[in-house]
Amino acid sequence: MGTMDRNVKERSVMLIAGSFLAASSIVGSVYAEEFPDVVVDASHSELGEPFLRNGAEIPIRDLQELGAGLGRLSQEDVISLLGSPVDPSVVGQDDSWLYNVSLPLPGENYLVCQYRISFSQQVLSSLEWRRPQCEHLFSELSMPAQPQKVSLSDDFLFGFDNYSLSPQGRSELRRVLQDAQGKFQALSISVTGHTDRIGAAEYNMHLSEERAKAVADALMQWGVNPGSISYEGRGESEPVVNCPNIAGAELKKCLAPNRRVEILLKERS
């Protein structure tokens, strides 16, 4: 038997011991002895789908609701929030359940974490992450996102003097929404339309309202709850530039920053 064969044989036992994050930004000592390990032969021919830990994508707010329900939630309540545990046979029989939970990381990455849920007399009594890095990441994800204001140019969103969203405007608006949905657990949106001072004030007020409505309508078409979005127009009343002593095409160009739609994104209270 060659040296390589001996090395492979010596390493033929593999511990599938839970989630691991190879990143210096999330570290912690490991105290996971009480969680069960699975011991298998490391031969590729014997490693199959059961040993790939695939986590469930559970909304952070549902995990937070578990914490708020300690001493109150039943096993049925937990299943309604998280679904069945890894081993469904423990339901109604065991006082300790395990879940594999995918917690989001920057980009499209995620960390799969083992989560233990314990009961006392069928009532939720404790919650434990197997790895400290999972607990730290969950704490970070549980922090409320700060309100964010996005200002989009009317000249980009709409054609001149109308309130129909342009293709590039719809694309940019959708990007803003997708970004916000990744940051906020329960998204609340306020849309405000603004115009420049060219033209009659009454007409500008109407135009700003219609443009704000067009943006709100598009967001609702893409799944935003109508009860979580509001819109209004403020016409020319809140300029960001004044452009004195200019006329004609130069004035229109100078006043462009005033022609805008502002979108306030925040956590719903």
Automatic annotation (TrEMBL):
Domain (OmpA-like) ranges: 145-269
Residue stretches in coiled coil: none
Entry-linked InterPro entries: Bact_OuterMem_StrucFunc, OMP_bac, OmpA-like, OmpA-like_sf
Signal peptide: none
Major place of residence: membrane
Superkingdom per UniProt: Bacteria
Cellular component aspect of the GO annotation: cell outer membrane
Gene3D superfamilies linked to this entry: OmpA-like domain
Keywords of the record: Cell outer membrane, Membrane
Location in the cell: Cell outer membrane
Record's protein name: Outer membrane protein OmpA-like peptidoglycan-associated protein
Organism this protein belongs to: Halomonas organivorans
